[in-house]
Amino acid sequence: MMRMTLRGVPPALGPVCRALARPGLGVCPRPGAPQRALRPLNRPLASIQTPEPAATSFSNDAAAAPAPPHIPVLLEEVLGVFKGAHIPSFFDGTLGAGGHAAAVLESHPELRVLLATDLDAAAHAIAAARLRRAGAAVSRHPNLGSLSPTAAGGGHTTVPGDLTVAAPNKGILAAPADDPEMAIPRPGTAPSAHILHASFLAGPEALWRAGLAGSLGGGLLDLGLSSMQLDAAARGFSFGKDGPLDMRMDGAGALTAEQIVNTWSEDELGRILREYGEERSWRGIARRIVEARCRDGPLLTTSQLASVVGHPGRPSPGRKAGARKATRAKHPATQTFQAIRIAVNGELACLEAALPGLIDALAPGARLAVITFHSLEDRAVKMAFKRAAGELDPGDEEVLPAWLASARRDQAKEQAVVRVVTRRPLVPGEAEVARNPRARSAKLRVVEKL
């Protein structure tokens, strides 16, 4: 076979580019050529192999600068959820700038252990300063995303990142061996806040290792993006600020938005636009992305992608001019950017996997609160809470005979581990939306451990 040569391509990238140029795998398929059949649509997105980018540091946008204005969403509602509760320990799985966590610390003097995770290392310094102002002794720990299991017996085990943890029955998450002052103390001493560079998916295991599994006093997830992430052009999350197509929550992540936009097939792009963006014009947008990269070269910036999708003030190509006002008021690229961001970070898969473990970690009577910002997140949280409360999925009730549905319903109730506190989600009031327009789509759902 004749060896393919690619002009202007660095030698190290030659094999990758040659692979992408093969028929059936190409970035720009031949006109009229049939595309390969896709694997089932519900497969993990991680199965799609793309070149691994170098780790990126975003500290110049956040941590190195003075703390930017940051308004925690639904703060009063979150504090109301935990009002009057005895909370010796608390888990914040999406720490961000630390607004919610600091407020919980200030509202609960009995709180002694705060365990927090966040993938965005750029926000850790801002959150740490905020938690210190709230009276906590703060320590920051390395990424715990790939922890090895801890032995069930006593003693300590060393895990990746040089973090030494005690076995669960010791009731303490120890610090790196050379800094015993960073250890999480037992109740009775000053409050201690520990920031873990990890996704909230690592929360259940971290809580287990900390000896808090089954005794956690409360928990919170504030999903979606922070204002700091949206306002930093270098992060690539916003079509309103021109920047590189990145969209990684964690700068060390293996997949970027640029890779998705420039290497995934039209079918794959259409799938994530449909499933993760709930975009009605998914076919047309996917086709235009592929046409644009084949005609003009790779799409490298947020403004390039937004211009391909459409422009504000007029319907994007493929949209009907008579669309509803609410749809016209939204930037045409909103759902496309949401879909690609979810695919980059595996957000929905992480959420669905983490919720059962976080519920298990709660002590009887303790509550877990989750703030969502779009219908896919809210639906996943709602269904997870209903299953934990012993309620059948609506689809099961529709397809099962009445007698079997009744029996399944009774069986599910016997297995319930929580009660749903918010049958209807709490939403921001007019005053909060006026003060912080980005809060307008927020919804808060809460469950309480039985």
Structure description:
The structure is a single chain. The protein has a domain at 75-227 and 348-449: Rossmann fold (3-Layer(aba) Sandwich). It is globular, with a radius of gyration of 24 Å. The protein has 17 helices and ten strands. Helix content is 35%, strand content 12%. The relative contact order is 0.12. The longest helix has 15 residues, at 282-296.
Keywords, separated by commas or semicolons:
globular, methyltransferase, SAM-dependent_MTases_sf, RsmH, 17 helices, rRNA (cytosine-N4-)-methyltransferase activity, 450 residues, two-stranded antiparallel ribbon, 10 strands, Rossmann fold, alpha/beta
Write the layout of secondary structure elements.
Elements: H1 14-21, H2 75-82, E1 89-92, H3 99-107, E2 113-117, H4 124-133, E3 137-141, E4 156-159, E5 163-166, E6 192-196, H5 203-209, E7 216-222, H6 227-231, H7 257-263, H8 266-276, H9 282-296, H10 302-309, H11 325-329, H12 334-345, H13 347-361, E8 362-372, H14 375-388, H15 394-399, H16 402-414, E9 418-420, H17 430-435, E10 443-449
Parallel strand pairs: 1-2, 1-7, 2-6, 3-6, 7-8
Antiparallel strand pairs: 4-5, 8-10, 9-10
Helix pairs in contact: 2-3, 3-4, 5-13, 8-9, 8-12, 13-14
| E-strand count | 10
CATH superfamily of one domain: Vaccinia Virus protein VP39
**Structural class, from helix and strand content?**
alpha/beta
Supply the CATH class of one domain.
Alpha Beta
The low-confidence runs, each spanning 5 or more residues with pLDDT under 50, are 1-26, 30-52, 58-68, 145-188, 321-328
Indicate the mean pLDDT: 77
Question: Secondary-structure element order, as H and E?
Answer: HHEHEHEEEEHEHHHHHHHHEHHHEHE
What is the radius of gyration computed over CA atoms, rounded to a whole number of angstroms?
A: 24 Å
The CATH architecture name of one domain reads 3-Layer(aba) Sandwich
In what range is the share of β-strand residues? 5-15%
